[in-house]
Structure formats: structure tokens, C-alpha cells
Amino acid sequence: MEFVSQILPFVFLIAIMYFVIIRPQNQQAKKHKEMLEALAKGDKVVTSGGLIVEIKKVEEGFFAVKLNNETEVRLVKDAVARKYEDEV
Questions:
Q1: Which terminus in the chain has less CB density within 10 A, N or C?
Q2: What radius of gyration do the chain's Cα atoms show?
């Protein structure tokens, strides 16, 4: 019985850490992965560097993106921070 009373605070601490830290991070990673899979040609995204680019082609691990009228580059999918929504 004494052993259980000593272990119980650690169990509560682990449970609190799971619900405060680990679970929200997993949910956020899942949403980001779903967003990356849903991106298509013509969508605008914000890169982790802060650039707003338009997707021209979806490839296996990359996006072919358009920076301006003359410049097209390849962007690693991991560098996409979020989808850009035009706020008018």
C-alpha cells in the first residue's frame, strides 16, 4: 500500500504532462499533415521563411512554386508553415 501511495503522484504528473504537452502537439502535427496533403495547384501558402508563394505543381516531397512572374522554384513540403488566406 505504501508503494502505491508513493507512485500515485508520478502517475498524475505523467497524465497531466500528456494532456498539456504531448496530446496538443500530436493534434497540431496531424492537422498540419492533413493541410499539406490537401494543397493543390493554385493555392497560396506561407513558407517558414515568411514568403507568400503560389503552388504551380505538386510533387512527391516538393512543391514547384511561383515567387513572382519570372521566378519559379522548388519548395520542400516541410517548409510550408500554413495556407495563405486572402484577408480582404
A1: C
A2: 21
